[in-house]
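ok so I'm stuck.
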Amino acid sequence: MEIKGRAVTVDELTREIRKDISFFLNTGGGVTFSGGEPTAQPAFLINLLRACKGEGIPTALDTCGFVEWDILSRMLDVVDLFLFDIKHMDPARHRKLTGKSNDVILDNLKRLNAIGKLMEIRVPLIPRVNDSEQHLSQLFNYIHSTGINKVTLLPFNEASGSKYSWCGKRFPLAHLKMQSEEGLKNMVNLGTRVGIEVKVQT
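replied:
not stuck anymore, here's the structure
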């Protein structure tokens, strides 16, 4: 077992981020807050986002979307881009896979889109869990119905199992392999047919 990371204050982390400000300004880049789920520490995150905006640094928030709207709404003026995960469209299946329904997630997605926030929808693909043609067709049609027309697919990462071994646990998905190039191409074409621009993150 090995402890990674350390406790920091907003000021300490802002000073670290500030060291790269010339790079951000020259490239059009910025800071992405991810996790885990960054909104699980809302007060810290909001203050850090405000500090970044005060420095003129663009911000992105990578979130699963399962967060109270009261918390998410307090971040609207300090997040430039929401990287928004959708894992499964079926509420019962989503609950079985994650322990929670997807109703809050989809409601937050619709709210963010309705007020015009810039979003990138991301789908972490798990073989035989959410990468079937039937499920992706349902997902792409839903996304298209909201007026959003871009989705990023995140292929299954076999290397993720190493984190389980570090914790002395068995990786339950060790038998699964990353989607094939042909399979991913078919997924992209599936999105195109319903008017969605699909890209695969490599």
